[in-house]
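Example 3.2
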Amino acid sequence: MKVRVEQGDITRAAADAVVVNLFEGVTMPGGGTGAVDMALGGAISQVIAAGDLRGKAGELVTIHTLGRMPAPRVLVAGLGARDEFDIDAVRNLAANVVRALRKPGIRRIATIAHGAGIAGLDPEACAQAIAEGSILGGYQFLKHKSNAGDDRAEIEDVVIIEHDASKVAGMARAAERGSILAEATNIARDWANEPSNHLTPTVMAERAAELARQAGMEVEVLERADMERMGMGSLLSVAKGSAEPPKLIRLGYRGRGGEGWDLALVGKGITFDTGGISIKPAANMEAMKADMTGAANVITAAWALARLGAKLNVLAIAPCTENMPSGSATKPGDVVRAMNGRTIEVINTDAEGRLVLADAICWANELGAKRIVDVATLTGAVTTALGDVCYALMTNDDALCREVEAAAAAAGEKTWRLPMWKEYDEYIKSDVADCRNVGAGNRGAGTIVGAKFLEPFAGKTPWVHLDIAGVDNMSSDRGWVTKGASGYSVRALINLGLRLAQ
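Structure, written as tokens:
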């Protein structure tokens, strides 16, 4: 899908559908909606008067133009209450509109810039939100369907029509930026939706390398022997049970130039998680093909920052392996040594994500990262705590955490910070090693315990941990979020990079 901005008159747009809007309580539409109403001989006003259009949020009403405009149909989208309308609502509206119009015969949509009129929102922010919402809302994963029928209908072009020629150039740049953010998110969604037999660690490394080549980024893939030489016993303990070789992927983008890395993004890349010897129940285990979501998100976020030309040096590090049970698999009670020398008693082999992240975070530190943000579908406990509404943040640095929170909010993603008090250190004390990989006893705080396990590997480097396990996979469409892999955190990470670059 391409999203463009053109100067013109919405009533004269040559498209398969024209999209306008209406706030709740408005009986006489103005602006672009008013112009379309006049062109249709008052048809929108008549529908309002009949009570079939009230402007409520989520309301979508189609009116056929019957030759009175070049476009054969007009979709009027309800905006809800004016004082509750914001950029997040623009993004979600654009997504809902694309889904509603996704049918055979509709390829090109022309729309006004929702929110940029009487709502008073910044026109460029609105253009970016429309681009993000349209591309994210139009996403489908149909790769393995041999006969998808009408599901394959796709909107090819979304054109934002702006009457004021002086605003077009800025809005066009914003729409391009939004398109890159959404495209990165959809690539991450593709990877997370992909069955694990089609996305092994080897394939993931190949796909990451291809993205790096597209964007002119550095790429390095460590093999098992490299990891052994570097002392990454924590990561390798997870890989022991699988026939698939592990891969540790590093992408680098030097937008600032010179030495050092301003930001390292580290993502959990378990391409399938059985739980290992501590095997999971069979019910819903198929969802564990998406346990590499964190890795996909950091790779695509770094790729987007490179495409946007952000003025910072950024790393993406993705430790990728399967977690499988076998005669060679790590067993509960085994002790392994991480890259920084810290020893770990493996109590539960299903707490493997933190084991692969430990060595990856150590490597980011060794490479000289000034800040580290890790992303993982780490704990079921975060779903118990926060549901599928937001994801958890934990940190050793207040300033960096505030930056991450602001970046997520700009993406329309809700976050909640959990405490990292020293009392929680007691939960991971081991009798036989420096730490254990799960909490002792039945003391709860599973999400915090996962972060507490990771904290020593970050050391003194400012670090934020994102546990996205509650929001990584959705059961239904909801605004810009689509059923299946959601893409949560990709745009937040991109926004973070852009903020730090400023």
